[in-house]
Design brief:
By secondary structure, the chain is an alpha/beta fold. Helix content is 40%, strand content 19%. The protein has a 4-stranded parallel beta sheet with strand order 3-2-1-4, sandwiched between helices. Strand 2, helix 2 and strand 3 form a beta-alpha-beta unit. Helix 1 runs parallel beside helix 2. The longest helix has 15 residues.
C-alpha cells in the first residue's frame, strides 16, 4: 500500500456517499483531506470533524466542479490551504433519473 501521510488529497463531492467514505479512509491514512462540497456545507463540516476526531487533518471547501471558474478556484484554494495538491479524486456527480 502506498504511504499517504502528509500528502494532500482533494475529493470532489466529499460530503456524502462514496466521497464521504473516501475522505474518511484518506484521513485514516493520514493524508491531508480537502472535502469538497457544492451545497451542503453542514455535511462537509461533519466529515471534517470526523476526520479530525480520528487524528487526521482536513478542511471543507465549497466549489461547483461543473463550472470551470469554480473548479479552478477550488483547486487553487486547496493548494494554498495545505501548500500543494498531490491527489485528486473526481467523485462528484449528479443523478438525473427519470422514469
Amino acid at each position: 500500500m502506498t504511504e499517504l501521510a502528509g500528502l494532500t488529497a482533494l475529493v470532489t463531492g466529499g460530503s456524502r456517499g462514496i466521497g464521504r467514505a473516501t475522505c474518511l479512509e484518506l484521513g485514516l491514512a493520514k493524508a491531508n483531506v480537502v472535502v469538497n462540497y457544492n451545497q451542503n456545507k453542514t455535511a462537509a463540516e461533519e466529515v471534517v470533524r470526523e476526520i479530525i476526531s480520528l487524528g487526521g487533518t482536513a478542511t471543507a471547501i465549497e466549489g461547483d466542479v461543473a463550472v470551470q471558474a469554480s473548479a479552478q478556484n477550488l483547486v487553487k484554494s486547496a493548494s494554498e490551504y495545505f501548500g500543494g495538491l498531490d491527489i485528486l479524486i473526481n467523485n462528484a456527480g449528479i443523478t438525473r433519473d427519470t422514469l
